[in-house]
Amino acid sequence: MAKYKQSVLWAVASKHIKLSDHAPVIPRSNSGILLSGYPFVSKTLREAGKPQDQRRHHCCGVTLQNEGIGYQDLNQLIKDPCDLEFTIELMKVEAPEDYEKESWQMNEEEKLGAVPALREEGNRLYRGRDYVAAASKYAQAIGLLEQLMLSEKPGDEEFLKLEKEKRPLLLNFSQCKLQERDFYAVIEHCTTVLDKEPDNVKALFRRGKAHVGAWNPAEARADLRKVTDLDPSLAATVLKELKVLDEMERRKDLEDKEKFEGKMF
């Protein structure tokens, strides 16, 4: 619950209970710092799993005063604060050095420092063929870099540096998605890299394979042939992929022909 701005309350309470124990906590209504925000916390938790169009919004103080926050019991609590009883169960105790912060809790230095560790963990998971978990680590690292980029002016040196650091992660993420056969995700993220680095061989090769999977044969051939032009050492690998594409086209032509003949007779 610390992330929902009740950290003072829970920190005080947790000092007095043991692991797996339950303890009632009754903060008094006159302890404003602990309870004044609770109705809004409760509203957030109630609506966390709802679609956006089913959530109840308030946008200004006048609306809040006239209409409340959409829940009668919470409106009443705002109007007439009273003592509340919470039951807390201590599920786990972590040492400070073992606690993994979420991105919103990190400062800029911590976010930047977390990226290499996430990339390495993603690499380890990929080598173990856990492609879904690896993609998640790469996505976390990409997200941290994108958050840092929001603080920079597009085109400035620091922005370009962060953007460049993001590209290898996009390629790693794309490789995971290729293994998952999520071809359109591969095409999207490789294209993002190629917009900045048109001759990136890895991006071209992975996008070419994704175009094969998504059945865009013309685009696949264009990407794969450019790979050979840029790196002749990959000619044999590209030729193998092109032969697969040729065979797929041959089979599809036969299937289409059989379907057409079936309709004729």
TrEMBL record:
Residue ranges crossing the lipid bilayer per the database entry: none
Region forming the signal peptide: none
An MF annotation (GO) of this entry: peptidyl-prolyl cis-trans isomerase activity
UniProt keyword Cell membrane present: no
InterPro entries xref list: AIP/AIPL1/TTC9, PPIase_dom_sf, TPR-like_helical_dom_sf
Swiss-Prot/TrEMBL keywords: Repeat, TPR repeat
Name used for this protein in its record: AH receptor-interacting protein
